[in-house]
Design goal:
Three copies of one chain form a homotrimer. The first copy, chain A, is an alpha+beta fold. In chain A, about 15% of the residues lie in helices and about 35% in strands. Chain A has helices at about 15-20, 30-35, 55-60, 70-100, 220-225; strands at about 115, 120-135, 135-145, 150-155, 160-165, 175, 200-205, 210-220, 230-235, 250-255, 265, 275-280, 280-290, 295-300, 305-310, 310-320, 320-325, 330-335, 340-345, 355, 360, 365-370. The longest helix of chain A is centred in the N-terminal third of the chain and has 30 residues, at about 70-100.
Amino acid sequence: MDETVIGDHRLGRRTFLKRAGLVGAAIPMAGGLIAAACNDDKPAASKSVDYRTPEPGAATAKPATGASPAASATAVSVADQIDNDHKKAITDFLANQKTPLTKGKGNLPLEPTIENGVKVWNLTVDEIDWETVPGKVEKVRAYNKAVPGPILRATEGDRVKVNFKNNLTESTTVHWHGITVPNSQDGVGFLTQDPIRPGASWSYEFTLRNSGSHMYHSHHNSMDQVNRGLLGAFIVDPKDKASYPKYDREFIMVLNDSLLGFTINGKGFPATDALVVKKGERVLVRWLNEGMMNHPMHLHGMPMQVFAQDGYLLASPYKCDTLDVPPGNRFDTIIEATEPGAWAFHCHILSHAESPAGLFGLVTALVVTE
Amino acid sequence: MDETVIGDHRLGRRTFLKRAGLVGAAIPMAGGLIAAACNDDKPAASKSVDYRTPEPGAATAKPATGASPAASATAVSVADQIDNDHKKAITDFLANQKTPLTKGKGNLPLEPTIENGVKVWNLTVDEIDWETVPGKVEKVRAYNKAVPGPILRATEGDRVKVNFKNNLTESTTVHWHGITVPNSQDGVGFLTQDPIRPGASWSYEFTLRNSGSHMYHSHHNSMDQVNRGLLGAFIVDPKDKASYPKYDREFIMVLNDSLLGFTINGKGFPATDALVVKKGERVLVRWLNEGMMNHPMHLHGMPMQVFAQDGYLLASPYKCDTLDVPPGNRFDTIIEATEPGAWAFHCHILSHAESPAGLFGLVTALVVTE
Amino acid sequence: MDETVIGDHRLGRRTFLKRAGLVGAAIPMAGGLIAAACNDDKPAASKSVDYRTPEPGAATAKPATGASPAASATAVSVADQIDNDHKKAITDFLANQKTPLTKGKGNLPLEPTIENGVKVWNLTVDEIDWETVPGKVEKVRAYNKAVPGPILRATEGDRVKVNFKNNLTESTTVHWHGITVPNSQDGVGFLTQDPIRPGASWSYEFTLRNSGSHMYHSHHNSMDQVNRGLLGAFIVDPKDKASYPKYDREFIMVLNDSLLGFTINGKGFPATDALVVKKGERVLVRWLNEGMMNHPMHLHGMPMQVFAQDGYLLASPYKCDTLDVPPGNRFDTIIEATEPGAWAFHCHILSHAESPAGLFGLVTALVVTE
């Protein structure tokens, strides 16, 4: 929050990639580190490695228990297939950091306009095609044609107004999950308002009374609408920044599952963005679960310090390397980026992250450059 | 716990409704508030609303991406169907607060008799018909013919005895989940006792040594028996009330899922009870998960302060608006009822709470009257 | 950690059983206690019990609501079947404490050799047959032919080296879950190393920088490989033991689910090991979830004090009787063994623990002997 703090999501895409060393004429730092870490280009530098890929015949000579030579021959093919698929997924992920493999990018900041001292955002609600992983295009619903919708961000005490135009063929409402608003602005269909009909517009207006990592999403036919993409982050910075931890870099991680597959910020691995940071930085990661399942997010190499839940600072922060994020919860965490390298960062429900065809879904990497 | 504290569950149903302003000749406060909040009667008072339901033709004029006019015509019908169903669910819920839509009510207090200084309850175990939501009647198993069974409540240090008569066609046992009892009274079939055969009786007797929000339920063929209703709350008030937070009103929320659907206190939305409170009150909500799934319960408008887990006071309470309650856990929470209105209060696993046919299951509302 | 502390897993199986009084000429204490607790041998001593198994005719005379006599006759048979199955499961569990009902035992300590001041372990990776519950043999993958693999244990600051020989017909890698290692040793296929091909060997070497209850497991095709058994505990004792709670006895509980069924330390109930302790002991239980589901582990009779998560001491420990352990997390807990008896200790997702055929899966017992 001080002058040196710049959230990545406040920068344009190109600026972000440039900082991360992933575009431009100079040898890309992070890209180089990733390449070094990946044996695609050169072997991992480990003095203790005694690596040798045996000839197929060697494997046949020492078959696994009960495997006949014929079965082994087939098994080696299976091994090759698994390895090739796993390698392709990682290679694709690295390539995605330089040139996105999928069309469309969500979870980007949207500056408000100021009208009579009120911060105003204009959002549309559309049904669009959205590429979650390379080649997989889904019919989704989206705010401003992106999943997640734009990051709305303001400061405690601000008066804000958000105008919606519903271009869907069904009604919708918008709920400000975690934000204390007047009941009339709470966005629950038929309980606090009539839903916004197809073709209609609706405005919400309120003063931000509580800070934190919050969310906005549909609260009408929401099992379908939220799962299909009507969701976004709403970050309310505290007025008094003294009590909030200092950080050098920031990431907002919106988790989703079910109807559009397992996604972080609208994309499944290998189309997810790496978190590229510099060694020594204090990295703020905000977790927002918009899905229907718990996701225990596991960071390799370093722990996370959990210091806020649902926007409320914990009296007693705690460290972990696996943070279970239930649906609807938000956690603010700090990572001290002490360990250089490309560190896997994924849901530890393994069926959300890896199959015999390789890593997929709720997987990314924290890349700590030196 | 002081003189001003009166748990709703200690009152009869009529008294509860009267206090909540939901019966009687006077204009009902909460009912009025709910009605005001619900556009069924009059539109939500929002100065920022630019609401207009377009003509079907208008929607057709601006079809969603790729939708043909014919498809749009169908889509509008779908929109109407979704809206009508959603509205009916809310309307039914509001009606349910005045006149219950389902037969039977569980989770009601049962005063013990005193025999030689021992608090004694007599419970039957029956298979009965139970209406979980309007029109859906299930074969359940129940203590004293209600789901959940009666609330047993006593004070730390009390000697208690609970007599059971098993009218089922299968054996059962009763486990005092969370309560420290002698091993012989722990109720685990064939480990601490022979099960209570069909037609047989059994008594449990022990001294309450630890306070808290506890549970009693079957521990024999329990996956089936607990899921089908053999469960209830056992509240042990602390002997020394000084360390327990003060509160003005209290609710006990027993969650269940699976075999009888998603229920709060034996009923699914719209047959669930609203939590009706007055602005300014400190509201104690006790969460007891008797189901087989985690339920992240989300309160709109205000946070919950979590101060006890499984009856043990937390050294470091924390605030949240979404509280993940795993099976078997109990959490004691305080809500400061600062925000007037009808606030949705539901599981944020959206498939436990809403479908295209509207809200259902683990949904209720906190109604804060002024 | 002081001189009086002896983890059971550091003892051989026979020593463990002998201490627990489960083998040898003397009347076995724990066995006797279990037998006493189990009505198989003699009825539970309860003054309040009014137990009488009615004649079949008696049950028929008081049928459950709506049950015809004929239906009741059938129902009694169902009741008998349920009871017999439940009794057999408990009886088998007790028998298993004396003579294992299944072949193979995992989660046993493996002493390292010392080479130039480095602690060295040699592990194989094999496909083997593994009996998870009596009579159910699965094709699993295993480190050193046991599930879980051997317990690796060293002290913060130690230099360690682990050599693997891959005898599988597919590639693998090993990830040191929770341990801060150089990126090159992190074991993520194609991100930090090429996978270890069938027939190949690989060595990992690093200095232990953070203490705690950690894990090692495959990180290549891991949804399949970890689920099928490529997992083990890695305990790093703190260099400075002053800040770590004192304990008298220790258990390491590795949870798994999915492909091999619900298992604790590679076995499902009734083949699970009881936790046999003496009254008054402080018992350390380390929870390690290697599965794909949350497991809320419930202890009857006494609470657990949770004091560390993922190896990091909590600033504010908390008590509970039900501890939800998400996939990938580890919790260190202390049980004050104050209550004598045989206490059920199980996952409270009841479908992971009991069916009409009796207790199964994630179930064991804490046996507190006097």
